[in-house]
Design a protein that fits this description.
single chain, 24% helix, 8-stranded antiparallel barrel, Beta-lactamase
């Protein structure tokens, strides 16, 4: 019998070894392929990513960056720019290790859904089934005495118990303690000073959390916060394993994410990127970002370190609908559920990232990811249905199933500065898509002569709403006040006025509460309803009534709507010089062959058709109205065309 057992064991080992060899043979190779055009990219336009990142390094925005892009299961781009250290003496390598901050959250969400599939975790179950210490957690409601004006905090019972699904979709009522409400102040004072420390455990953290109120009734408001840290403790209880051990054995090893974890071992410290000068700006970031030594606090919301290559593998698993290298992590149905809207239709949005997730950002939330849902409102390009998230340090990733693409950017920037870097990386990536089968050259086109009057008529500025043939983005212009707002406690709160716009010019300040818009009370309006009332035709007036802390009474102000133009639009300037048309872009973003500061000549193919003799051979066609006046410019006419409307 013992001999039989030994034989079975040997056969099992042989079988596992054989399976390992088979997986290795078809393993996802995180190394760039040589033929970028075969993956649908222009090599010259993809190179703009590194050039732009270098300008940011030179300007001191961050010390270095690593970017990785894969398409159709192959890596098109993996490159490091800049330095590993703040002193800029050690060149950055592509295997550099970064604190990924909130890009930990998607990993935690995947871990939770693995347990859901195994029947060990119930999405609909109250969180207190797994964490009894949260059974009596109350909801904090601010009340104001109409006589004295004093604001107080009243604790009320939960209408519906906070569920596991609420944790995954940030509707649990848990916050980060960074806004000015009384509940946030409690989190900031009582919580971060006590149990959210690296020498405490997730169990300690949850016990301390039980003493604090929720900021909202569960299921009613989307607000970014500590949900994933609570979820990490739920995973520990449901799995019977420490959270770090669960991730290592069930996710990181199977996916060959060899440099991902909650701290950087001594042998790898030489690859860790220095944090920005001045630190992280306080808890919780300073706590989670101390990754040079082991920790007891396995933060599911922001504790992990990783590399671009490791996270690319994680993203590719999701793009493959739950599988990588023959190893299945999740079922396709579960990935679909995670990356589809999970929010109720009447959900309200609050907090400091409500301009990214919600009506202002053209995105909704699934179970662990922001999901691009509305191209008309989105501030970034990409297909509807693409999903993403980011970290406060500037780390960023997204997956675009329609384009079969995964992209990751790793940087370590100062707190509050990273949004433009994420948007630019995404714009440049989609802008690198090439249009197939151009192949037009000067030698293949007969010489065409166009009269001077026609050439002069084509000169002007053409405004593009889209920068890529595949970004599915509409024009990003509207009449508005130039102010970012959020909903807090049912009130419209100013997050930040935009410099140079009507709100800023009128003295509107962050923290102001907008109580009325044209005599209509904003109390109870959804965020998109409030935004629609602030938007309207350019040069029309809207009246605001504002309550400001420290002021005795309301402030009345009338603003005139101005043209608001968000990042993502671009102009092409067409110039007629010495009988030739030249084109360059206006703004920070290049478009196909055209860049800022370099006038590219275009060669006529007919009276209204032109092409670029070089680069990616962009084709152009000018369109006219009934009177013969040029009204628009079409780049690469056909299924991948981009259209610009003439504005002067």
């Amino acid at each position: 019998m013992k001999r039989a057992h030994r034989l079975l064991a040997a056969l099992s080992i042989l079988c596992l070894a054989t399976l390992g060899l088979a997986s290795a043979a078809r393993a996802y190779a995180v190394a760039p392929v040589g033929d970028l055009e075969a993956l649908g990219f222009s090599s010259s336009r993809l190179a703009r990513i590194a050039a732009w990142q270098q300008t940011q390094v030179d300007a001191g925005a961050f010390s270095g960056a690593v970017a990785a892009i894969a398409r159709n299961g192959k890596v098109a781009y993996l490159r490091a720019v800049g330095f590993r250290d703040r002193a800029k003496t050690i060149p950055l390598q592509s295997d550099a290790i970064f604190w990924i901050a909130s890009m930990t959250k998607p990993v935690t969400s995947v871990a939770a859904m693995m347990l859901v599939e195994e029947g060990k975790l119930d999405l609909a179950a109250p969180v207190h089934r797994y964490l009894p210490e949260l059974t009596s957690m109350m909801v904090g409601v601010e009340t104001k005495d109409p006589v004295t004006g004093k604001t107080d905090l009243v604790r009320e019972p939960q209408k519906h118990p906070m569920t596991v699904e609420d944790l995954l979709r940030h509707t649990a009522g848990l916050v980060y303690g960074v806004d000015g409400t009384k509940v946030n102040q409690l989190y900031n004072r009582s919580f971060y000073g006590g149990v959210f420390r690296r020498d405490k455990t997730l169990a300690d953290f949850v016990s301390g959390l039980a003493e604090l109120p929720l900021a909202h009734q569960p299921g009613e408001v989307w607000e970014y916060g500590l949900s994933d840290d609570v979820l990490a403790r739920v995973i520990e209880v449901a799995s019977g394993q420490p959270f770090d051990h669960f991730l290592e054995t069930r996710l990181f090893r199977p996916l060959n994410m060899v440099d991902t974890g909650f701290y950087v071992p001594e042998a790898k410290l030489s690859r860790l990127v220095d944090p920005p000068a001045g630190g992280r700006g306080g808890p919780p970031d300073d706590v989670m970002a101390d990754v040079t030594k082991p920790t007891k606090l396995f933060s599911g919301g922001g504790g992990l370190v990783s590399t671009a290559a490791d996270y690319l593998r994680f993203g590719q698993m999701l793009l493959n609908r739950g599988e990588l290298d023959g190893i299945r992590i999740l079922s396709p149905a579960t990935v679909q559920r995670m990356t589809t809207n999970a929010l109720p239709s009447d959900i309200r949005f609050a907090g400091y990232v409500s301009s990214i997730v919600g009506p202002l950002g053209g995105s909704t939330w699934g179970l662990g990811f922001a999901v691009r849902s509305d191209a008309a409102w989105s501030v970034v390009p990409g297909s509807v249905g693409s999903f993403n998230w980011m970290g406060t340090s500037g780390t960023y990733f997204w997956v675009d199933p329609a384009q079969q693409m995964v992209a990751v950017q790793m940087i370590d920037a100062a707190p509050g500065t990273s949004d433009p870097f994420q948007q630019m990386f995404r714009n440049l990536t989609y802008g690198a898509f090439r249009v197939p089968d151009q192949g037009v050259t000067a030698s293949a086109v007969p010489l065409v002569t166009i009269d001077a009057a026609t050439l002069a008529a084509y000169a002007g500025t053409y405004r593009l709403g889209s920068l890529s043939s595949r970004d599915m983005q509409v024009p990003r212009e509207f009449g508005g006040l130039g102010v970012n707002v959020a909903i807090e406690g049912g009130l419209v709160k100013v997050v930040s006025p935009i410099q140079g716009m009507p709100a800023a010019k009128a003295g509107i300040m962050a923290g102001d509460i907008i109580t009325h818009l044209d005599d209509v009370a904003t109390q109870g309006l959804s965020l998109n309803q409030a935004i629609e009332r602030m938007r309207g035709p350019v040069n029309t007036e809207v009246r605001l009534r504002i309550v400001r802390k420290g002021e005795d009474g309301p402030i009345e102000v009338a603003l005139v709507r101005a043209q608001i133009r968000l990042q993502g639009a671009a102009d092409l300037q067409v110039v007629n010089k010495d009988g030739h048309l030249l084109i360059e872009t206006r703004g920070d973003l290049p478009v196909l062959d055209f860049e800022k500061g370099t006038a590219i000549p275009i060669i006529p193919m007919s009276n209204n058709e032109f092409f670029v003799d070089g680069g990616d051979h962009t084709r152009l066609a000018f369109l006219r109205d009934g009177s013969g006046k040029p009204t628009s410019l079409v780049l690469n006419p056909g299924p991948w065309q981009i259209t610009g409307q003439r504005i002067n």
